[in-house]
Amino acid sequence: MTVEPDPDLVDRLARALLAGEPVVVPTDTVYGVAAVPTVPHATDRLYALKDRRPDVPLAVLIGDPDDAWTLAVEVSPRARELAGRFWPGPLTLVLRRDPGLAGWELGGDPATIGVRCPDSPLVRAVARRVGPIATTSANRHGHPTPVDAVDAAAALLGPVGVVADTGPCDGVASTVVDLTVEPPRVLRLGALTAAALGLDDATGRPEPGRDR
Q: Is 68 part of any domain?
């Protein structure tokens, strides 16, 4: 049975995010530090907290799977198929970014966007309130990701607006698949294997006998 998120916690997180304050949130994979990309300079603070280069891309978390298609153009049938099978869940899809989002500071290639609908009622509830949330793991760049909220907040190089502590995460990051190329390419293996995605290895080649 799905446990509904604490509405007071949702309110606190939403208020902090809309004020431009980063927050630490649990997902279904690891603890993340998050900001709203439509708030000026909010994502700059994420990079500073992690001591991370601003050219390393941030993913965005969404409240509902269909929200992904409002952020992207030229969405392939494979993208919709993977989203239908694995969202909400530990899969990040790299899509061609809608040009209308050019002002979003997400690092990496401004023509693409990494999107995930997490299996976290709390994060999805917050995203429904504030819009897509730019998120990265709550750790110093290059360091292990803590699995609990206290250690996640302590690993960052400064305070955040809210730390949402809902207990340990499983510590396995999402799998990232680039769907802007054909065949799709696995950029990072995580909670989902290439075989589970219908790809035979991390090069992104389809399994024999599987449709692309």
A: yes
Question: What CA–CA distance (Å, rounded) separates 49 from 208?
Answer: 44
User: Could you tell me the two tokens for 158?
Assistant: 């400064």
Domain count for the chain, please give it: 1
- Give the tens place of pLDDT for each residue, 161-184: 999 999 998 878 999 999 999 999
Token look-up 């603070």 returns: 45
Distances (CA, A) of 152 to 12, 18, 33, 204: 18, 21, 9, 32
Residue-level length of the chain: 212
pLDDT at 202 over 80: no
Range of the domain at 104: 7-188
Q: Alpha helix (H) ranges present in 131-202?
A: 149-155
210 within domain boundaries: no
